[in-house]
Design brief:
Elements: H1 5-21, E1 46-50, E2 55-58, E3 67-71, E4 77-84, E5 87-91, E6 97-101, E7 105-106, E8 110-113, E9 118-121, E10 130-134, E11 139-146, E12 149-154, E13 157-162, E14 166-167
Antiparallel strand pairs: 1-4, 1-7, 2-3, 4-5, 5-6, 8-11, 8-14, 9-10, 11-12, 12-13
């Protein structure tokens, strides 16, 4: 069977199309979100929050990939573990990973209360006046974190929580 140039072009185009659809492996970060890291790109990993009440989470970085599940609540903390063009690979509190468009995420920080009952306090001290008792799973808005304490707002009340009671902020991370 003779080799035809049209067959070669077809196979080459097919190869290029398949390569373009395959998920990236460690794509470099770019400074399009405004969070610059050490190399001038975005810090990975980093935390963000869901910015919409309905977010399609996909199996790969593009709208051509199938929807794996949906988030139906804005303000949930997620960890961005990879960047690829306009897509972010995220991990949630349960460890589930998927891809979302960057426009569906917000830089506003929130955190999830972990463990048992946690106390929101009036000052960053274990002996400070208790304001609220929070159960595991409650979402709080983070205002700032320094040392072992984070200033958080929930249901219109602002106070302080131990950093180790929260998922959505790194150990030693400073937020202002």
């Amino acid at each position: 069977m003779p080799f035809r140039p049209t067959t070669f072009r077809f196979l080459l185009c097919l190869f290029i199309a398949l390569a373009a659809l395959s998920p990236p492996t460690g794509a470099p970060a770019t400074a399009q979100d405004g969070e610059e890291g050490d190399a001038g790109g975005l810090r990975v990993p980093r935390f963000a929050t869901t910015g919409s009440n309905e977010i399609n989470v996909r199996t790969g970085p593009g709208s051509q990939y199938p929807i794996a599940w949906k988030y139906v609540r804005a303000g949930l903390p997620v960890e961005i573990v990879a960047d690829f063009e306009y897509w972010r690979k995220i991990r949630d509190h349960d460890g589930t990973i998927g891809w979302v468009h960057k426009s569906l995420l917000s830089g506003r920080r929130s955190a999830l209360v972990e463990g048992g009952i946690r106390v929101l306090r009036g000052d960053p001290s274990d002996g400070a006046r208790p304001l609220l008792r929070l159960e595991a799973g409650v979402i709080v808005r983070l205002d700032r974190c320094r040392g072992d304490w984070c200033r958080a707002t929930v249901e219109g009340r602002t106070g302080w929580l131990h950093r180790d009671a929260l998922w959505g902020v790194y150990p030693g991370e400073t937020l202002d």
